[in-house]
Amino acid sequence: MNRSYAKARTRALPDVVLPEPRIRPAVLRLARLLSWPYLRFGLGYAGVELRHPERLVEAFRAFMSGETRLIVAFRHPFVDEPQVLGWVFLRGVQREARRLDIQLPRQPHALFVHGYEVPRWSGFLVRWLLPRMGAMPVHHAKIDLEGMARIRAVIADGPYPLTLAPEGQASYASDRVPRLEAGTMRLGFEAASNLDKAGRPEHVMVLPLSVHRQYGPKAERSLKRLVRRLEAFVGLATMDGRNEDRKSRLLVLRDELIGRAEALYSLKPALGVTPDERLATVVDSAIETGERILGISRGAGDGDGIERVYRIRQVGWDRIYVRPDPRALSALDRAVVDRRAGEAWYAMRHMELADFAWYFRTEPPETSAPLDLVIEYTQNLWDLANRLAGGAVSGRKNVRPMKAILVAAEPIDLSKRLQGYRENRRGAASEATAALEAAYISCIEEIRRG
């Protein structure tokens, strides 16, 4: 795996400083022109299907007509949802509006929230594009008053809807909802309360969007290549031509990869321990190793482990991309920050493994399961091997061709829930988050029904 992202960083770099997010009309026009060719030829999408497009179109129409404020809350299982949704907002909503004979006041767009780390690990083009499309960075693991102020301002008065992933990051699971963060609903309730106090009539709406992939027979060949490549990478003899069914091959790969991960942390599972339990122990060991290298104490009230992953990521990137500019330091000071950057990079290899493995469901789908679930599981096995090798999300493999399917659920009106919010803010946010989860699950069930 001779990938640039898997090569150790041993030099501290000047921090990436983005300009203030500001929409540039010329950039939007260029994005509208290039978004589909990028999806088709860059990512391998043969099409995008919108289910219940009337819900999406009506949500945008009501927002652009000044009747509502809108938060689009999308599922994030495949990593490239922002690119797919970028096309949907720039072109797809307008196309569906024309088909439904609905007049939109202007051309749609939406403003994405992204992690502060994205412009650090991505290339120059992404760094240039994000702020000019109005995308807003935010920190996961430290106080970010400036970033949160931008987001609040967009919800209340922005020219386009706010778009974010309540899962917080990629979850690698399209057929279930592993976790949701309550921050989306808290922000929505806060905006609804402020609008109500100001005497403004707009309701704050949250539109759930569930994102899925569908594969045709042509993807079988690509899937077989990925399985063979994974077996070769792990060092297993390929089972092509044998009487082994696909599930058996995936089980062998799963057990081998979990065993390799346990060996990395000198773990010896007890008899009768399930693969899920074994992997959970690996996740704990990986997080603890990353924290130990960086000198981070676990602390109290760390929740489900992902918060600890966020903290390792924050500290790690802050030691690789530093302020002041390391090029202005003395030789000794430069050597010290370079050393800290190298240690941070290795600490983050453990974090990347824990980050993925926390979400990974170890039991493979049955051979008769829908092809999209078999492909997703195989991709996740590759990702587990990739993370063991020191890789990150950029090493994930796509199986082509594929079609994106977006299912729009009924919007959740937070303004109608304001009384409950005033009586119990935490409880109201939890109930609204549960309603969002139920909406996603309903969309997943719709996909499974065909």
What would you call the quaternary organization?
A: single chain
**How many beta-strand segments?**
10
- By DSSP (H or I, 4+ residues per run), the number of helices equals 15
Q: How much helical structure, as a percent, in the residues?
A: 40-55%
CATH superfamily of the largest domain: Glycerol-3-phosphate (1)-acyltransferase
The structural domain count equals: 2
Main β-sheet description: 8 strands, mixed
Shape assignment: globular
Class by alpha and beta content: alpha/beta
Question: What is the arithmetic mean of pLDDT?
Answer: 94
Percent of residues in beta strands: 5-15%
Cα-based radius of gyration, to the nearest Å: 23 Å
SSE order, as H and E?
Answer: EHEHEHEHHEHEHEHHHHEHHEEHH
CATH architecture of the largest domain: 3-Layer(aba) Sandwich
Runs in which pLDDT lies below 50 for 5 or more consecutive residues are none
Distance between the termini: 38 Å
The third-level CATH topology of the largest domain is: Glycerol-3-phosphate (1)-acyltransferase
CATH class of the largest domain: Alpha Beta
Summarize the structure.
The chain has 450 residues and is an alpha/beta fold. The chain has helices at residues 25-43, 53-64, 81-99, 118-121, 124-132, 145-157, 183-197, 219-234, 246-264, 275-294, 306-320, 331-357, 371-388, 418-423, 425-449, and strands spanning 13-14, 45-51, 68-74, 111-115, 136-138, 162-164, 203-214, 321-322, 402-408, 412-413.
